[in-house]
Specification:
Chains A, B: One of its GO terms (molecular function) is ligase activity, forming carbon-nitrogen bonds. Chains A, B: This is tRNA(Met) cytidine acetate ligase. The structure is a homodimer. Chain A is α/β, with parallel strands linked by helices. Chain A folds into 3 domains: 182 residues, HUPs (Rossmann fold, 3-Layer(aba) Sandwich), CATH 3.40.50.620; 50 residues, no CATH class; 77 residues, no CATH class. Chain A is 50% helix and 10% strand. Chain A has 20 helices and 8 strands. In chain A, strands 1, 2, 3, 4, 5, 6, 7 and 8 form an 8-stranded mixed β-sheet that branches. In chain A, helix 2 packs antiparallel against helix 11, helix 4 packs across helix 8 and helix 5 crosses helix 8. The two termini of chain A are 19 Å apart. Chains A and B meet through helix 12, helix 19 and helix 20 of A and helix 12, helix 19 and helix 20 of B.
Chain lengths: 404, 404
């Protein structure tokens, strides 16, 4: 079976994702689609609107054949580490191609850009360091460094978000010496960060905003998501009465900042350059999570970076726990969230060449990353009222979703 | 001016306290009544229903002349340490007598009991250790040790709660070689733990229960409290919409237990004999604070002891931070919560002989106990919605209440 790998967050799974899925399948001529998906916390440092089980199920019902979880330690990270975790996972699962959406839409410029990048990597790294020292944020410093080595004016513009992400995948594929073949499809016109739903292909941001602000699955929201996602929302709401967003975790974060000392705060991943002092200074004045973010934000501390730090603070994930991911040359295990019959066949076919554990039940395997995963889940589900919590939370210790 | 000292919690200040106040004044022939009161967390390990400022104000308006705060490190402790902190405070303030309510009502048996106790202290300590080793709770082991040295059958029955508390005061007064004179008045018939309001002198427990369960200041509740307390409730509710109880802190505690490791949990004061394992084991099943307590409670872990541990966990107060109080021979500072004109005169009169700082504004003084106090306040006010919080919380950095 020929498999195409997708790197996704599905927050939530929407029509743009359906398009990505179908186009990728066609472009790569794949029999089977494997998605590696963030869990309950996302790359940009946010709790997912629905938990990973309900997001995975919606994707499986609309054509993805196998969904595996990108470990927290890779998911809540900047683009390069996020890409590393995802590529290592797809490589371990022996998919043939990795197909991502980009503004560019053609893979050749990515290949050329990679060659050019490798020839200028020394200069790039140097320029990046200068930018960071000047106080630029990581994305801004990267953008400027790419510009310095002529990767924003050439055939591939690395100042566009999905080109950057795609280029991270390509870099990982080659730097990690995998046998994966990168492929890309052009994204439809809806922009990554669009705030309002304009047509049937809308950004995840606009869909979440519409649903959370209208407190309802309006016709507008329904028009932008497949039926399986609509059902996932209804089911999740019926079970928990909650759609997760940052404000649910505000009091927990205040408590943490107030009761932990500076030394302990400093052990948290993402707590850099005296951010712990800023947290202590601002916590008294914040009237909401949004307000706190506004008080904290500076040119150097970008929104995304602050949010990621808050996820790690909420889950108490330390720098020490994160250290090992830089050294990793392969993913230590694969956690299956769900599959259909084709996905199951694919797994059976590739299992014999798989030299790492396939975790389908948490109790069967022990790993420091799973300890972090457990804390992340505990924290995530605190947004759900205690009496309703067990029903969704216990899903995590059960077997994967099997679709017939 | 002759001053009488009272040791109180006023949770809330009720008619029984008014009776205690007036009778004590009469019995000791005092010009001025000084109360040392627990702050926002109480001896039995509970958040106070109203914050310390509103409780202090109610007491001042109904006849107490000066209210000072018993530091958290002494307040949320078993009877002996609670007594030590309160007696050291009243001794530093140079009051003449300390008058407590007891089932007994006559001070002579307390004197006799103290003499008898000192003669048998070795045996008492030995019996206490045996009881504790057998797995009895501290109160139960104490009760049995008192019984062994004949202090429960004699003229003073040390198995009754207010006699025990009173005896702790007497012990502290003499053991700490203060010049305070102990005095007692008989408690009226309402029992310490009565759960329902039966008459105008009702237990604080029954009053809190009535108010919290009826979500209202019912006529029944009003009949058991002075007008000043009624107004304190109205004012506090108007500002915060909250009357504090443990369920407000349930999610914060779950988060703490889920995200901290066993080693960190073990540093918390009151985390003894593997309680951290029990917490980790039960946290998943608890549907409310009450439910969690029921899951945790055993013969050895009494309700009060568990609640105190939860207060320290909520405020992240460690064993290390508490260590120094055992060595203390005097109180390190006095925090004034409020006074009327007579209280102010009294303070002025005694100030010249006072060799420790009188803290009326927090910014003027720095002490490790005040750092703990600050954390305790932060945690306490988390029950109040963020937007309303500053209004009550900032009271803590302002000047004391001055009543004219």
């Amino acid at each position: 079976m020929k498999a195409c790998g997708l790197i996704v967050e599905y927050n939530p799974f929407h029509n743009g994702h359906v398009y990505h899925l179908e186009s990728s399948k066609k472009k790569t001529n794949a029999d089977c689609v494997v998605a590696v998906m963030s869990g309950n916390f996302l790359q940009r440092g946010e709790p997912a609107i629905l938990d990973k089980w309900h997001r995975a199920e919606a994707a499986l019902q609309t054509g993805v054949d196998l969904v595996v979880e990108l470990p927290y330690v890779f998911a809540v990270q900047h683009a390069d580490l996020f890409a590393k975790g995802a590529i290592l996972t797809l490589d371990a699962l022996q998919v043939d191609t990795v197909c991502f959406g980009s503004e560019q839409g053609d893979i050749t410029p990515f290949h050329n850009a990679y060659s050019h990048f490798k020839q200028n990597e020394g200069n790039f790294t140097y320029q990046l360091q200068i930018g960071l020292k000047e106080g630029l944020s990581f994305p801004e410093a990267s953008r400027r460094a790419y510009e310095q080595i002529n990767l924003t004016t050439n055939e591939l513009n690395l100042s566009q978000p999905n080109n950057i992400l795609g280029f991270s995948y390509v870099k990982s594929i080659f730097d990690l010496k995998t046998s994966l073949k990168p492929e890309t499809i052009q994204r439809t016109k809806s922009q990554y960060h669009d705030e309002e739903i304009e047509n049937q292909i809308a950004s995840a941001t606009s869909i979440r905003r519409e649903i959370i602000s209208s407190k309802n699955l309006s016709e507008k929201a329904k028009s932008a998501i497949p039926l399986s996602t609509y059902h996932a929302f209804l089911t999740y709401l019926e079970k928990t009465s909650v759609l997760h967003h940052w404000e649910h975790y505000f009091t927990l974060l205040q408590h943490t900042v107030w009761t932990l000392d500076l030394e302990t705060l400093r052990t948290i991943h993402g707590m850099e350059e005296g951010l712990e002092y800023r947290l202590k200074k601002t916590v008294n004045h914040a009237e909401s999570f949004q307000h706190w973010m506004e008080l904290l934000k500076t040119k150097r501390y970008t929104w995304t970076r602050l949010q990621r730090m808050f996820v790690h603070l909420l889950t108490m994930t330390t720098k020490l726990e994160m250290e090992s991911i830089h050294m990793l040359k392969s993913i230590p295990y694969i956690r299956i969230l769900g599959m259909n019959e084709k996905g199951r066949q694919y797994i059976n076919e590739r299992k014999k060449n798989l030299d790492i554990p396939l975790v389908s039940k948490l109790q069967q395997f022990d790993h420091p990353y799973l300890t972090i995963e457990e804390r992340a889940n505990h924290s995530y589900y605190l947004a759900v009222e205690a009496k309703k919590r067990a029903r969704v939370k216990n899903r995590d210790i059960e077997a994967p979703i099997i679709l017939n």
